[in-house]
Amino acid sequence: MKNIFLFAFITMIISSFSGCSENKTAPAAATVSGKAPDRIVCEQYRSDISRTLTTFAQWGMQYNNSVELLDAQNSVVGYLLLPPEKYERVAGYNDYINTAVLLSPEKRIISAVLGKHSETPRFIKRVQDNGFMNKWNGMTPAEAAELKVDAITRATYSCNAISSEVKAVCLEYK
After folding, report:
1. How large is the greatest C-alpha to C-alpha distance in the chain, in angstroms?
2. Which of 49, 122, 150, 153 is the most buried (most CB within 10 A)?
3. pLDDT score for 35
């Protein structure tokens, strides 16, 4: 009997860390001010962050849905703006696309970055190769929240999902 309860408890714990794409309302971001960031949520964005912000070395502190991005000398080189805990999500072609926003220390958008998703790789590549992830570059989150972005041909669902996520992130931050 104890084994059944233990198994159920372990299953519940593991399922809570299974990734944000399972959550139909929003990625589960830690929102405790001034605490260590939720590594499980943040790690899904690491490869896109590292490609875009080459000086990024480690996570800093998290304040609400904003995580400090630090270089090797522990200096802030940017911020990762995570989606709010609750918002209306738009699905891509296959499912939701976890998207966050990279912000410079001057509070300007560096790029949108992708996390977990189940979209077809060639469609995501089309989105990235056509500069869609950079549509908001140089803007403040307030400006980006108001921007109407045209989708990339043959990747409309993916683009709509990404731009919806970017808008939700920017509305939360501004």
Report:
1. 59
2. 49
3. 83
